[in-house]
Amino acid sequence: MSTSPAAPLAEVVRGDLVESVHTGHLVALDASGRVVLAAGDPAVTFWPRSSLKPVQALAMVRAGLDVPDRLLALACASHAGDAVHRDGVHELLGLAGLDETALRNTPALPLDPAVALEWELAGHGPTRLTQNCSGKHAAMLVTCRVNGWDLASYLDPDHPLQRAVAATVRELTAPDASGGADEEPGAAHVTVDGCGAPLFSTSVAGLARAFARLGGSAQHDPLSAEARVARAMSQHPHMVSGTGRDATVLMQAVDGLIAKDGADGVLALAASDGRALAFKVADGAKRPVHAVVDAALRSLGVVAADAGPLLPPFPVEGGGASVGEVRAVVGGADV
């Protein structure tokens, strides 16, 4: 992320004093693509981390990936690693005549602590299968098999698959003709994500545009690849994340919503009419994410102003009791 000045997104209140402030960059778009809420620098270039997975999945669908919706949702996932996720990865690999030895993602324990404990008690350690990105990697291998592309080098940034992903990132995150010409193009930078796959840069505004284009796609062309990805996510939220995890909870709460979080304080979502949100917490903290999402959804009108929180508030405790709160602020005002 560049050094563009960040703005307050949330403050931690203990007792009657603000104890700390989390800053970042945020943008929310209405159904026409107009900015209705912003903080910091929406044009800041950053790493979107796993929030980019739906765009990567779109590139794969366009390249010929044709799998059931629940498996396409798994291709978009940072999954918990429970049995349904592991079985789905095996099923994906089986479509290409492969097993988990073909995966090149970084071995890890299941992402969900309870699932990880169960896995370890069964005598297992970190594996490529249980790492949270294994669905994406399995889908990448299936896409390579469909196209006759080399399997062993599928993580090389110059591989045809990764070139297709980069092109899709550039396309979906690009500003429209109404403005944003000074914004750095998507996929201008490349590095390696935690799972070992190439990771392409974008801007916070670009990520919001990408989700808007995915989320609202069914209204324009319900048979499009974009609509397929959005439908898979919204109809199979558990496959995208897992029980009680942020993206799953949000999609279960709002019909047609697509949502994907990313490491280091990133989250993006879109409603079925194209209203969209993306933000990056500058210090990478998870603590302010729930409050910011909740406030932004109300500002967008996706959730009623008087509705209860969709995600549980982050606790501020003293002596085992609640003594404060994490509350969202944008532009210096409570929202």
UniProtKB/TrEMBL annotation:
Which InterPro entries would you find in this protein's record?
Answer: Asparaginase_II (IPR010349)
Can you tell which superkingdom this protein's organism belongs to? Answer: Bacteria
UniProt keyword Hydrolase present = yes
* Protein's UniProt name: Asparaginase
Catalytic activity, EC? 3.5.1.1
Which GO molecular function terms does the record list?
asparaginase activity
Biological classification of the source = Bacteria, Bacillati, Actinomycetota, Actinomycetes, Micrococcales
TM region(s), chain numbering? none
Q: Which gene encodes it?
A: ansA
The UniProt keyword set, sorted, is: Hydrolase
